[in-house]
Amino acid sequence: MSIDLETAAKVAKLARIRVDAEALPALAQEFNTILGFIEQLSEVDVEGIEPMTSVTPMRLKRRADVVTDGDRQAKVLSNAPDAREGFFAVPKVVE
Question: Where does the secretion signal sit in this chain (predicted)?
Fold first, then answer.
C-alpha cells in the first residue's frame, strides 16, 4: 500500500494537524516508510511462539485482591477547599 499526497492530507486533517502543502510530500514519504516497516514485521513467522511480557522469564508482581475503603479519605480531603462530613462540598448550581 502506498500513501499519496491526497491521503496524507486526509490523515493530517483527521488527526487535526495542520500541514503546509510543501510538507505533504515528506509526510507521505514518512507514512510510506512506516507502512513498509509494518509489512516487514508481518513477514516474521510467529507460529507457535507464546506472547511474553518480558525478555527474561519472571512473574508479574501482584497485590492481594482485597476490597478496602482505601483508608485515604482524610488525605484526599486535606486539599479540598471545602469538605463536609467526609465529602467534597461544592456550590449549589440548581435551584
Answer: none
DSSP secondary structure code for residue 90 in this structure = -
- Separation CA 34–CA 86 (nearest Å): 52
Residue located via cell numbers 510538507: 23
Q: Is the backbone of residue 48 left (phi > 0), alpha (psi -120 to 50) or beta?
A: left
Domain that holds residue 26: 5-42
Query: Is residue 65 situated within a structural domain?
Result: no
The 10s digit of each residue's pLDDT in 23-68 is 999 999 999 999 999 999 889 998 998 888 778 877 778 888 888 8
Q: State how many domains the chain has.
A: 1
Please tell me the distance from the alpha carbon of residue 45 to that of residue 62, in angstroms, as a whole number.
Answer: 32
31, 19 Cβ separation under 8 angstroms: no
